[in-house]
Amino acid sequence: MSADATSKERIAMRAAKEIIPGSIVNLGIGIPTLVSKFINSEDIFLHTENGLLGVKDIFEEDEIDPLIVNAGKLPVGETIGASYFDSAESFSMIRGGHIDVAILGALQVDETGCIANWAIPGQNILGVGGAMDLMAGAKKIIATTMHTNKEGQSKLVKLCTYPITSIRKIDVLITDLGVFQFKEGRCTLIELMPGVELEEVVQHTEASFEVNIKNLTNTVDEIF
Fold this sequence. Notes:
Layout: H1 3-16, E1 24-27, E2 45-48, E3 52-56, E4 77-84, H2 87-95, E5 101-105, E6 108-110, E7 115-116, H3 131-137, E8 140-144, E9 156-157, E10 172-174, E11 178-183, E12 186-192, H4 198-203, E13 210-213, E14 216-219, H5 220-223
Parallel strand pairs: 1-2, 1-5, 5-8, 6-9, 8-10, 12-13
Antiparallel strand pairs: 2-3, 3-4, 6-7, 10-11, 11-12, 13-14
Helix pairs in contact: 2-3
């Protein structure tokens, strides 16, 4: 397994800890799909906008049913008691506030919590998908991403330069370097990933953020 794959699974594992048992959760494409490996499907109910409530991870090739896929067209399983519905009803569930947690991938997140996760200027896109609806309707929004892009540029930026997904702000951002919380337009680093030092986060982050990690409470500007 590559270092990136290990980091992505670590991000997904940490995201799973944010979910309260009994929650209905929608998982976006990319890192969010890995979250299903780290939850108990008996007390957390996964929703996919193409029309299934009761998604579960599959581990064996003979479990694959080509007709049962998630919104990213990846094969998934169905839990006992799972229900199927059309996309219109699925989006009514989202827009009606019936999704407790949405876990989304991110291209950029700014220091106030705005997220851009559906388009890169100059590149062909398929569309925003369900992300803008989930941003509007889900009760809690968690974003997951590697902290930098392939060029080493921070994805946690002062201001999004890609088209934003919604004017609503996310609640939590989890990267391979740390966990950030967003409240009242303020970005706070609340946890470092295992083996990561604060200096590394500062070095790879464009955005301004405060620090509140156990006994370490301050702004980055005050520390450095």
